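Predict the holo structure. Ligand: NDP.
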Amino acid sequence: MSQASHVPPATASVMERFDLTGKAAVVTGGNRGLGRAFALALADAGADVAVLARDGSRNAAVVREVRARGVRGMHREVDLTVQDNVQQALDDTVEEFGALDVLVNNAGVCVHTPSMEADEAAWRAVFALNVDAVWWCATAAARHMAARSGGCVVNIGSIAGQVALRPQAQAAYDASKAAVHQLTRSLAAEWAPAGIRVNALAPGYVRTEMAAVDDPRFRRRWIDDVPQQRCALPEEIAPALVFLASEASAFMTGQVVFVDGGYTAV
Ligand code: NDP
């Protein structure tokens, strides 16, 4: 195995470098919010897409949208905080699609608990999904990728993994995303010889169920603190995901890419 197989030919056009036709992708937490936008963007770029999340009816709805784009779609109802589930779901994907080329580690959870309350269960729940499951998914996927000619992993980080946000009582979330950023760098270095690239995409505030962007109490956080003076739609983050998942970023690994309206620039 070598990275040579993933060096695009010099003659490839820019659009060809973004093309994911024939690639098989997994999006964890792909049934709503950012994950749904990522699943649909990958399908737009030509990839077959598997959605892994707990709510089967929401999974199925996104898979219908994926298939409407002319590619294959599948889903598994899976709680990713159970390690055996992760291995099984990724094995199922490889069996159905015949390969696994792209893993998007998107599923995540945020809890708001004052640290002095030392809510250990909340801390563990956040780390179980945001860190443990990311590592389990990445390692299970990498074994499949390494057995072929490589692939790429995109971990979804956050501005919260880079800078301290205004007090939000979400220290566990912030620490978990910092762990995702460093895990990205470590796995990138370890797996580069196997032709596996690992990068992180770190969004700023995005309008999803996780982020209460319509709550007027948080206007200062969502809008005034952001140089571009707004939060984003999931569809504005997805093009960067396609970049990191495709040969357009063939010479990038171990990077954390912020798409945040300038939040981490100031
Ligand atoms: P949502 O809360 O809208 O979606 C979370 C997704 O994760 C859902 O698809 C959910 O599906 C899935 N999920 C949750 N728990 C589990 C579990 N135990 N097993 C499997 N799947 C699970 O979040 P967002 O779309 O906002 O966030 C997506 C990612 O982006 C997260 O990693 C988040 O930290 C990150 N992010 C978000 C930002 C924002 O402002 N929105 C900013 C920066 C980063 P189901 O419940 O059906 O299992």
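The chain has one domain: 14-265. The chain is about 40% helix and 15% strand.
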